[in-house]
Amino acid sequence: MLNVHKLWLLTSLCVIVTIVLYFQSEIARLEDSYRKLEFRIAQSHTDSRQFFPKETQKDDEDLVVIYNRVPKTGSTSFVGVAYDLCKKNHFKVLHINITANMHVMSLNNQYKFAQNVTRWHDVKPALYHGHMAFLNFDRLGTTSKPIFINLIRKPLDRLVSYYYFLRHGDNFRPHLVRKKHGDKMTFDECVEKSQPDCDPDNMWLQVPFFCGHAAECWKPGSAWALQQAKHNLVNNYLVVGVTEEMLDFISVLEQVLPRLFKGATEHYLSSNKSHLRQTSSKIDPSQRTIEIIEQSNVWKMENELYEFALEHFKFVKRKILLRETNSVAQVYFYEKIRPK
């Protein structure tokens, strides 16, 4: 009799658990259906409650994007995508070639470039790219401003890549002889011997690229330059991605700037653009070398900018790429418009 009673209790408990799990599943399903229905209703009303000025198409045709690409951050791969898309999407891609690869323009050329870029309507819409520091168009008297985008890379990775690039070149132009060709010294050996080519001060490049054309930007270890770089990254760049997440960077741009980057994600995935330019014969630094480099103030500042950019990019893409559980595409609309 006791066993029968236990069996009855166990059966009852299983039934209760099954019912609870069923209702939990139904509640979750109904909540999901409600969210989807709410989103569809909002979408159906969006067009009638948003304002689309007639100039929108013209504004798209006036679009100017400047990619002031930092060397050895994967910029060739990204630009390769733009060159492949420009004919299909009907925009121009122009390389900014500055004498002797200077990263800072003279004041007169800053002014001329700003006026030229904003007024050269025959090539609009356009993507300009080149190894140059951020240029503040507000101080140059232009009536319109271009959109800035960029990529940033872990500072030591970028330095090591550049070190071996100068010695072995890359697979993009394998027959071009670089200025350190024939030098067999490894990066570890260079650091051990305190040679100038691996001086941590050589990492001072991403901070000044985002900081701009001020003299203080180019002083290694300047705290002012770092703060200015952060300010510009947040306030004067539309999107700053990281080399390690190139695909996400391209996907975000496709969502935000479809006039230029429509189809960019699919093209990047289906082509060889993700490995367009790789440094040949690169040797990863030892742990000892990493520890030495990371003691430098310049590395700490450059890494602070990188971590700042990475966190900001994650924040941006979270709202666009919708990879969070139960996330839905964001819409906006106007309501309670008075008087009727």
UniProtKB/TrEMBL annotation:
GO molecular function, one term: heparan sulfate 2-sulfotransferase activity
Any Gene Ontology biological process: heparan sulfate proteoglycan biosynthetic process
Membrane topology category: Single-pass type II membrane protein
Parts of the chain that traverse the membrane: 7-25
Keywords from the UniProt entry: Disulfide bond, Glycoprotein, Golgi apparatus, Membrane, Signal-anchor, Transferase, Transmembrane, Transmembrane helix
One cellular component term from this protein's GO annotations in UniProt: Golgi membrane
InterPro entries: Heparan_SO4_2-O-STrfase, P-loop_NTPase, Sulfotransferase
Subcellular location: Golgi apparatus membrane
Quaternary data: Homotrimer.
Similarity-based family: Belongs to the sulfotransferase 3 family.
Protein known as: Heparin sulfate O-sulfotransferase
Species this protein is from: Bicyclus anynana
